[in-house]
Amino acid sequence: MKWRLKEQIDKNGDTLEELANYLEITYQTLSKKMNEHVDFTRTEIKKIKSRYNLTAEQIEYIFFTD
């Protein structure tokens, strides 16, 4: 998941720190989530979808495809 989400972050000129602040979590928590040690919440996924204007298919690919 890490590289798929990182692609969207980079594509949108964002940083991990900015995304963490937007999600109201720490950088360390975001890192754990991106490395699949902790799951993203439904609310966080919705916020990411909105921030990066992602389609349902992109969300599926980023978060739910092995």
Biggest beta sheet summary: none
Helical fraction equals 55-70%
How many β-strand stretches? Answer: 0
Q: What structural class should be given to the helix and strand makeup?
A: mainly alpha
Compute the separation of the termini in Å: 8 Å
State the helix count.
Answer: 5
Mean pLDDT: 96
Q: Which residues sit in consecutive blocks of at least 5 with pLDDT less than 50?
A: none
String of helices and strands: HHHHH
* Residue fraction in strands: under 5%
Rg is: 11 Å
Anisotropy-based shape: globular
Query: In oligomeric terms, what are we looking at?
Result: single chain
Q: Can you give a write-up of this model?
A:
This protein is mainly alpha-helical. Helix 2 crosses helix 3 (27-34). It contains 5 helices and no strands. The protein has helices at residues 2-11, 16-23, 27-34, 42-51, 56-64. Helix content is 68%, strand content 0%. The mean pLDDT is 96. The longest helix has 10 residues, at 2-11. The protein starts with a helix and ends with a helix.
How are the secondary structure elements laid out?
Layout: H1 2-11, H2 16-23, H3 27-34, H4 42-51, H5 56-64
Helix pairs in contact: 2-3
Short description:
With 66 residues, the protein is mainly α.
Features:
66 residues; mainly alpha; 5 helices
